[in-house]
Write a structure and sequence with these properties.
The radius of gyration is 21 Å and the shape is globular. It has three helices and seven strands. Residues about 1-35 have low confidence and may be disordered. The chain is an alpha+beta fold and about 200 residues long. The N and C termini lie close together (about 10 Å). The protein is about 20% helix and about 25% strand. The longest helix is centred in the middle third of the chain and has 21 residues, at about 70-90.
Length: about 200
């Protein structure tokens, strides 16, 4: 698994106007607040023209808050959603909040992301899918639980402020990984991540 890290403001989608929509003068249905949805800025992935915009922030699912097999698997999916967010935005704070400072492989990932986003640079691609997440849900003697995860990552392209590639792209990958997590203080936390070579 190659793990490396875009945020930016966006403009409202084209066609949005501040004027109210026209409606017939007579209506049998009263107007409700939900009749006029609030415009939401559209997500735009990164490319050579600039960073990703309006990237949805991952939300911890309720299932991932439980000290159960399903909860651990939901947490593993959420952790990789946070990793995707870090790749797209360069912001790893959400990832850091659910990762132990002792996870050396994770620290290498976030360091690499910071390096590849410094000075206005950004990444395009690198999206991660986790088609298989599995755990026997048996605690080891140290209290950690193992989760086996198949990780498929798309090609990553690295752009500088002028939109030129500043290093060769990282090719797509499909690898097995073992996560080690613990449930402490009412929440799951990743303690280690080991690619299976």
């Amino acid at each position: 698994m190659s793990i490396t890290a875009c945020s930016g403001g966006g403009t409202p989608p084209p066609g949005q106007s501040s004027s109210a929509p026209q409606s017939p003068s007579a209506s049998s249905t009263p107007s409700t607040p939900s009749a006029s949805p609030t415009p939401t800025a559209s997500y735009k992935p990164a490319d050579a023209s600039g960073k990703a915009q309006n990237v949805p922030v991952p939300v911890l699912p309720e299932a991932a808050k439980a000290p159960t097999k399903a909860g651990l698997e939901a947490f593993a999916r959420y952790w990789f959603e946070q990793l995707n967010f870090a790749y797209e935005t360069g912001n790893s704070s959400g990832l850091d909040s659910v990762t132990s400072a002792g996870c050396e492989f994770c620290s290498n990932i976030t360091r690499s992301l910071k390096t590849n986003y410094e000075g206005g640079r950004w990444l395009a691609g690198g999206h991660i899918e986790t088609p298989s997440i599995n755990t026997t849900y048996q605690a080891q003697s140290d209290g950690l639980y193992q989760i086996a995860v198949q990780v498929q990552q798309a090609k990553i392209t690295y752009f500088d402020t002028g939109g030129k590639e500043f290093r060769p792209p990282t090719p797509p990958s499909d690898t097995g990984n073992v996560m080690l997590a613990a449930f402490k203080n009412g929440a799951w936390q990743l303690n280690a991540l080991h690619p299976i070579r």
